[in-house]
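User: Could you check the structure of this?
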Amino acid sequence: MTGTDRRAINFPPLLSVFDKLIDRSTNIHKLFMYVTDRRVCVA
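Assistant: Sure, the predicted structure tokens are below.
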């Protein structure tokens, strides 16, 4: 197994971790926007 093969195998999990982090941050952002929208509607 060459170094590039190992890197190719190690790369996708890293990408999926970043995807999860981005997913979570966008979900938090959506939740924040929703909460602020509700607050504006109530006020």
